[in-house]
Amino acid sequence: LLYSGEKPAVAGVRLLPIDSLNSYMTLRKVAEAASSSHIALLNDACPLLLGQNAMLRFAQVMEYTGAVMAYSDFLERSGENIKLHPLIAYQLGSVRDDFDFGPLLFFDASAFKSCVTDMDPSVVYSSLYDLRLRLSERFLPFHLNEPLYTVLPKDKVSSEEKQFAYVDPRNRGVQVERERVFTEYLKRVGAYLEP
Questions:
Q1: pLDDT for 56-71, tens place per residue?
Q2: Are 172 and 71 a contacting pair, CB within 8 Å?
Q3: Pairing of strands 16-17, 2-3
Q4: DSSP 20
Q5: What region does 53 belong to: left with phi over 0, alpha with psi -120 to 50, or beta?
């Protein structure tokens, strides 16, 4: 279990203190601690309920398709209402750093570890983005067009806040780093054009 801040009181679970899910050090800790064939990451601090056999379904689909990363549709609960939150399929060229994978990501542990080994340790804000781009070079992330979990209510960030976060001067370091990660991706796939 990854945590930042105060150590949670959870029995029978290995606890890994982290600074941020997006840092290289966090992904390295996950890679070093992983002892199973798959890794599940919650990329959003939101409470959720897994559907029956959700993890098994992810593993089965990844084994059948050969995918190294998978994500699924999910349900959203708001009070007594539950609605489907469908996601779109990842395609070649789906490189936005805010692509909606939903909060739960599922990875092939071997591919995860291999990609983390190749990553730049100085990346602080964009390692999860870098990981996704590196994995997509092997096999595009696989979308399960079925809801495998339910997201419970949490505090919402306004859509206007999200849309304009990239121009906030406080996010300048993040933006510069994401551009560097993306530029390196373009070079690796042979799509980089010199200025």
A1: 999 999 999 999 999 9
A2: no
A3: parallel
A4: -
A5: left
